[in-house]
Write a structure and sequence with these properties.
The protein is α/β, with parallel strands linked by helices. The chain is 33% helix and 16% strand. It has one domain: 2-Layer Sandwich (Nucleotidyltransferase, domain 5), CATH 3.30.420. Strands 1-2-5 form a three-stranded mixed β-sheet, sandwiched between helices. Strands 3-4 form a two-stranded parallel sheet. A two-stranded antiparallel sheet has the order 6-7.
């Protein structure tokens, strides 16, 4: 799963979280995750945070800039989903009705259907278990909860990937001096996909 959310302040009220991307990856392979990360940074800019669950993602965290590895412990899940429930109850999470596409059937709206079936059970010793009924999936809900937490920190100074000299050098395998050339025009890549790459190299 790959979910991108944005935190927006409307009319000086509490922030609203909007789902910008809810992608169900076909296999969850490394190349799919890195492609989603690259696309998100190119469209939305540098994120305030990127969270990966420790289960199955420990090898990815070093390959995504600013990524942090988190463990879904029972205590962490309790805080995560209590907060998600509060945001939903207050109407502060917005997402398209067709967010998420079921990889088995191709049917859109997977996020909504998994949210509807998401529940919790109180087990022995006061432990709370979160998830869907047996046989159902809840990946989009977990991904949404982590995405909201990732963007709920202090806003960073925005920096597009092509402005990061070290990242561009590593990406293209080239060197260069420290003198900055004019920054690329972010709008040009809408009509010329290669323009931003040429400008990034020129910026070295």
């Amino acid at each position: 799963m790959w979910t991108v959310t944005a935190k927006a302040y409307l009319r000086e009220a509490d922030p609203v979280f909007r789902v910008l991307v809810c992608a169900v990856l076909p296999t969850g392979a490394e190349r799919e995750v890195l492609a989603c990360d690259h696309a998100a940074r190119e469209v939305f800019g540098e994120p305030d945070g990127v969270l990966f669950e420790s289960y199955g993602c420990s090898d990815l965290v070093e390959k995504v800039r600013g990524a942090e590895l988190v463990s879904p412990t029972l205590q962490r899940q309790h805080g995560l989903f209590s907060r998600l429930h509060r945001l939903m109850a207050e109407g502060r999470i917005q997402f398209p009705a067709d967010a998420g596409r079921d990889p088995r059937t191709g049917t859109p709206g997977l996020l909504k259907s998994e949210l509807v079936t998401f529940a919790y059970d109180c087990e022995r010793e006061g432990a709370t278990k979160f998830g869907t009924q047996r046989g159902a999936h809840d990946d989009t809900v977990y991904s949404l909860a982590w995405a909201c937490e990732a963007c709920d920190g202090e806003a960073q100074e925005r920096k597009f990937w092509w402005q990061d000299k070290q990242f561009v050098r590593e990406l293209y395998g080239v060197g260069g001096d420290e003198d900055a050339a004019p920054e690329p025009d972010p709008a040009r890549h809408l009509t010329d996909p290669l323009a931003v790459h040429r400008a990034a190299l020129a910026n070295l």
